[in-house]
Amino acid sequence: MSDKNSQHSSRAGVGVVVVAAGSGQRLGQGIPKARVLCGGRTLLEHSLDAVLASGVATAVVVVLPAGDAVLSSVVARAAAQAAAHTAEDAAGAVVEIMEVTGGATRTASVRAGLDALPPSVAVVLVHDAARALTPPAVFQRVAAAVAAGAPAVVPVLPVVDTVKVVVGDVVTATPDRASLRAVQTPQGFDADALRAVHASSHAEDPAVTDDARLMEVHGRAVHVVEGDALAFKVTTPLDLVIAEAVLAQAPVLGVSPTT
Ligand code: C5P
């Protein structure tokens, strides 16, 4: 990793921002996506299980749609479970879990989450609640790479399809597939660097669809670690069918019983 100038100063701790304030229109269930059930539990519950099972977080901020009592109670239950777990295990780190209301765009929701994190965190992971089956190991890989000095880290997978650039209905280019990667979450960042780019005017650009892009436009190196096919984003009804099937086959696929 070449860009290792970031210092995490004397602060410690990893904050995880789970963005769950999207409307889920493309899923077509008429409720926020994070509230959609998969294997009998909400997508948000699956996501929070993975965050907590990873053991990387010292603070978790869940960004919710305004006034969503169902999702609020999911966060409250997770907070109570984390507190009980801490009480049982005196050596365990305290995981603080809280909720905030999101914004009109994903970027605005991430910023709301960032603002609510304790200033003591040195590393921030931003995770889409919609990537409900992300294995805990992906959180661990991303957090470890940021702790090792990378200012920005994204989990990636090779691209299996040939990808075309299209203008109107005409193909204008075919990028070399070998150099392409599909990007997932959690994305990990040096906390100061992420706060700085979110305070810039680029954060208002609708073309910026993830935090790693914000780091790129500010010239910061974004490093990659291995993603996982199970970290796919539940976006369409087909994705939900696949997620249900994955949960039904969890032992065969080696998916943790917590998810
Ligand atoms: O819309 P998209 O699939 O890109 O959303 C990715 C994640 O960002 C989802 O978990 C969604 O809940 C979240 N999001 C949000 N606030 C928005 C839009 C999306 O928290 N305004």
Written overview of the protein:
The protein is globular. Strands 1, 4, 5, 6, 7, 10, 11 and 12 form an 8-stranded mixed beta sheet that branches. Strands 2-3 form a two-stranded antiparallel ribbon. A two-stranded antiparallel ribbon has the order 8-9. α1 runs parallel beside α2. Helix content is 33%, strand content 20%. It has a single domain, classed as Spore Coat Polysaccharide Biosynthesis Protein SpsA, Chain A, CATH 3.90.550. The longest helix has 20 residues. It is of the alpha/beta class and 259 residues long. β4, α2 and β5 form a beta-alpha-beta unit.
What Rg is obtained from the alpha carbons, in whole angstroms? 18 Å
**What fraction of residues sit in β-strands?**
15-25%
Order of helices and strands: EEEHEHEHEHEEEEEHHEHH
> What oligomeric state is this?
single chain
Query: Number of helical runs?
Result: 8
Q: How is the biggest beta sheet arranged?
A: 8 strands, mixed
Provide the residue-averaged pLDDT: 91
Quickly count the domains. 1
CATH architecture: Alpha-Beta Complex
CATH superfamily: Spore Coat Polysaccharide Biosynthesis Protein SpsA, Chain A
| Poorly predicted segments | 1-9
* Class by alpha and beta content: alpha/beta
Helix content: 25-40%
Distance between the termini: 32 Å
Number of strands: 12
Which geometry do the CA atoms define? globular
**CATH level 1 class label:** Alpha Beta
At the third CATH level, what is the topology name?
Answer: Spore Coat Polysaccharide Biosynthesis Protein SpsA, Chain A
Named once each, the bound ligands are: cytidine-5'-monophosphate
